[in-house]
What we know:
Radius of gyration: 19 Å
Low-confidence stretches: none
Distance between the termini: 19 Å
Strand content: under 5%
Number of strands: 2
Number of domains: 1
Largest sheet: 2 strands, antiparallel
Structural class: mainly alpha
Helix content: 40-55%
Order of helices and strands: HHHHHEEHHHHHH
Strand order of the largest sheet: 1-2
CATH topology: Glycosyltransferase
Mean pLDDT: 95
Number of helices: 11
Amino acid sequence: MQLSALSFEEIRRWIYKNARPLDLALWQYQFEHGSKEAVLSILLYYQNSDGGFGGPIEPDNWNPASTPYNAQFVTRILRQIDFYDTAHPVYRGLFRYLENTEHKDSYGWYFVIPSNDNYPHARWWDYNQQDNVYQSIGITAILSGFILRYGDKLSNLYQMAEDYTKSIVKNLPATKNFGDMGIGGYCRLLDDIESAGLTKEFDYQNFRGIISNLIRDKIHNETDNFMANPLEFVLSPDSRFYEENKDEVESALDQIILNKPASGVWDIPWEWYNGNKYPKAFAISENWWKSFEAIEKLLQLKRFGRLDKNILL
């Protein structure tokens, strides 16, 4: 099953009518031969003086202050456009912020920060320091892997990422609550450890085996949780986890195609506060997310060969 050229054109039209400039630039880069520079120039408007990134770069949190989660969100975009020039201002600021932010602890970078509560946001961005202990696993794993792979090995930040990674790997067998992003974060960290040639430093084989079991368990036992989508963990047919989850992955790809509305793009499967708080802000955020997620879904379909050959990219 493949996404038709007609459906692709419907998505394109929706994006041009509704996307924020950042997501339009991402669309143009991925599907219309746009430039990385256009994406980077817009990212700079979200970057604060401390080098971090403020809301609403992540559409569900309008806090203008820099947050570790926003830093993680930016690394997601940088990976998407395949940009790794660490001399660029986006990188210099990002790494400076992660090294110096007060929003970190011995276990990692915080998932939520106190000032979130002062601005429109989804309920999962409510500040709760106790939640940080386990919800921070995912973003700390993602950020640490990114730094180990692309950061300066002589920097203090690299040492910080190395220490966090050692702690994550050591604590994994006894960890019971992985937060919303923990297992996906482990997958990204595993990829980066391998790509950085650090498999001997972090007990790679044992780490990989535990993650494989966690993925299978999550996919099979959390069927009503959209965060258990196998495409959250299996990013391409080349993934080390593809073969053992092939049926679920291919079914998820089929569902993307089958569930596309007759016109426009896919709905998002969440609300902020069941529509009872910040309704105007959520209506805006919802459209931003639809644009970003539509691009993500099309990239998933593209990686797995699920776009009709008549689609001109």
